[in-house]
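Its record is retained below.
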Amino acid sequence: MANDATKTLATDKALRIVDAMRSSVSRRGVAGSTFDHVAREAGVSRGLLHYYFGSKERLLVEVAKRDSEVRLEAMSGELARAANAEDLGMLWVRSLYATVRHEPAFVSLLLELYTLAQRMPEIADELSAMTQAMTDAFAQRLQTLVDDGRITIGAAPEVVADVVIGFGHGLALRFMSNPEADMEPVVEAAKRAVGALVRNGPKA
């Protein structure tokens, strides 16, 4: 990449560019969010986008990183309050509904980055780090609840976390591709499937 992350987000203008790209993606999609559109919305020159980010791909990564950090902070707060298997199940359901109903642009952006990652190793590394952070946070909370005797799990914490988070991402894509589908029965069945991996322990 042409610029390091410290330089990328060092100024107010850079942050405005990231926010403008996020807004553009939510309205126009990834393909329609050109540097010209983003520059106008951010109130900066097109050349400044190249100076800070080097490419559209780099800017998309920064948008995803910022959104992932916000989501991770929110998820960490909810995980800290989860005390048993039911709490974890409800957290998962709330996160899925929030993603499908209020954050579809984030899922579209991740899908675009997954595609780019197939031919750009640097984006693959960034994407892996983003998704791993969420998995690690979930796995750590699972291990704490297991140690406290509040839950039992059907596999290693990291494995269960990967399954639960991957399950959510897959269903989000499914419902985004078919917004008229009834989510309720599918989500309920998915919640029961997750419940097979995460059960209440003796101290729940």
User: Anything to note?
Assistant: The mean pLDDT is 88. The two ends are 48 Å apart (CA to CA).
